[in-house]
Amino acid sequence: MSVYVVVGGFYGDEGKGKVLSYLALKDNADLGVRGGVGPNAGHTVIHNGREYKLRQIPSAFVNERALLLIGPGVLVNPEVFLSEVSSTGVEGRVFLDGHCGIIEPKHVEADRGSEHLRGRVGTTGTGTGPANADRALRRLKLARDIPYLTKFVEDVPFLVNEAIDSGKRVLIEGTQGTFLSLWHTDHYPYCTSKDTTASAICSDVGVGPKKVDEIVVVFKSYVTRVGGGPLEGEYSVEEAKRRGLYEVATVTGRVRRAAPFNFKLARRAVMLNSATQIALTKLDILFPEIRGVTKSDALTGEARDFIEKVEDEVGVPVTLISTGPDSLHMIDLREEKL
Ligand code: IMP
Ligand code: MG
Asked: Which ligand is nearest to the CA of 224?
């Protein structure tokens, strides 16, 4: 591993936290830096029997020697940030950029109180849209303006570029998913308040496109979506339950709408992100026999066929296959062939 960007390929909740935590451990990342919108994202990481739901801290925290950074493009809710610093015990190795925008209670109220945002778009109600609107109006407070955050403030783009230039292993963490992008969705206004593709994630942390080695797009083995907007092939709640696809959202506790894997969207996500690898998650939900396996020879014929179909239809190799919730429940085909 050198410089990896990990992004979501559908509508968020693809299992990016899981993939990032695996890479942080397996490749012994020196640095994990989070891009994306802000605390509207919830990345679930299960490691050493403990479950973490991270809305601000990079998922690479599971590697105890990794430096953890939050890029200037990311919105920070100080309350959420500080509570995660304490629940993960990462103080001393986590820093945010002075240019990170600050979500204040008034942004959360504006998000939750808006019929358009909360009612129609179905936002997470975390204040990210109103805060990004204030940022565009150039009146949002920045992290550098908040005295009690001073000890966490660093020049994040400088630290990330310095690490890359000296050959360190860097994991750049995307949030949300490609089709929640403000630019690239077909379903405006059912989207988030920024672009969410790999280029935007790199910009969020201050890294130019030439410095990236690998772009991993994460697809869940089926599609889920929370909030409003179309979902092709959507199952009824009963059907989703019957198929074992019933999920509850990390940040909001809402039921996630579910649909089958969408090859057309996956192809477009690969194009929009210039993905070099695919991570396929929750394959054990479609094929329960493979739960927890870590070697490809333990895959069943049906599971193999599905992976090959994804590769054939999407045109990029599947390199990481998640077979269970723990960070280490992963088949790594970067080393092994199917
Ligand atoms: P907002 O980002 O809170 O403004 O919400 C806008 C839309 O994006 C809504 O449909 C949310 O459910 C969705 N969304 C935002 N962040 C995430 C995420 O991390 N996972 C899944 N859906 C998200
Ligand atoms: Mg999530």
From this structure: 1
